[in-house]
């Protein structure tokens, strides 16, 4: 599957956005305040975003929850419905642009859109491309029992199971190895 630069950036952004959500009520929110949202916008080089407010923070958290539901959808039809709702609510307005040294690409948010609508439109369309390509199963959650972080499996054979093989995957493999050694030692 060919993934353009802007689609890849949108996929990275949506994964990072979903992963800012607390995994349970005791965990901290990765977007605790407007300053954190501003840092998220800058880190992901989200263009055409003005001054942010508490309203923007609340709206982005709602969009984040809707994106999380896409990753949790039990089947493609449900994911497609959620993506359609996100993109429609954002007032999608496709337009060609070549800003900030990037070649021509498509933005799906309307000029002057809120950051939440911007994320819903561009990230929603990136997820839509995966559904259209028959690749929705690549939108995953980490299989480590103590981690449920979202990720997009871009491996050639669709075999990635962990959000990060160096942390979650390695930790589980080491634990399994130690359990086998302990059992063998009797």
From TrEMBL:
Task: List, for all copies, the residue spans of the domain called Zinc finger CGNR.
Answer: 138-181
Q: Name one Pfam family in it.
A: ABATE
- Transmembrane stretches, by residue range? none
Report the leader peptide range.
none
User: Organism's domain of life?
Assistant: Bacteria
Task: List, alphabetically, the SUPFAM superfamilies matched.
Answer: Jann2411-like
Matches recorded under InterPro entries = ABATE, ABATE_dom_sf, Znf_CGNR
Record-given protein name? Zinc finger CGNR domain-containing protein
Look up and give the organism this protein is from: Streptomyces cyaneogriseus subsp. noncyanogenus
């Amino acid at each position: 599957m060919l993934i353009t630069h802007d689609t890849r950036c949108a996929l990275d952004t949506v994964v990072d956005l979903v992963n800012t959500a607390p995994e349970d009520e005791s965990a901290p929110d990765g977007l605790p305040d407007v300053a954190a949202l501003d840092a998220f916008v800058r880190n992901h080089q989200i263009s055409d975003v003005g001054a942010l407010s508490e309203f923007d923070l609340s709206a982005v958290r709602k969009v984040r929850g809707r994106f999380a539901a896409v990753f949790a959808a039990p089947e493609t039809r449900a994911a497609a419905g959620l993506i359609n709702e996100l993109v429609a609510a954002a007032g999608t307005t496709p337009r060609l642009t070549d800003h900030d040294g990037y070649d021509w690409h498509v933005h799906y948010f309307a000029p002057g859109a809120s950051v939440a609508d911007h994320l819903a439109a561009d990230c929603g369309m990136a997820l839509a491309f995966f559904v259209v390509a028959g690749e929705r199963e690549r939108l995953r959650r980490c299989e480590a029992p103590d981690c449920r972080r979202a990720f997009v499996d871009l491996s050639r054979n669709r075999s990635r199971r962990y959000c990060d093989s160096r942390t979650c995957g390695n930790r589980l493999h080491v634990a399994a190895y130690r359990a086998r050694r302990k059992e063998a030692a009797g």
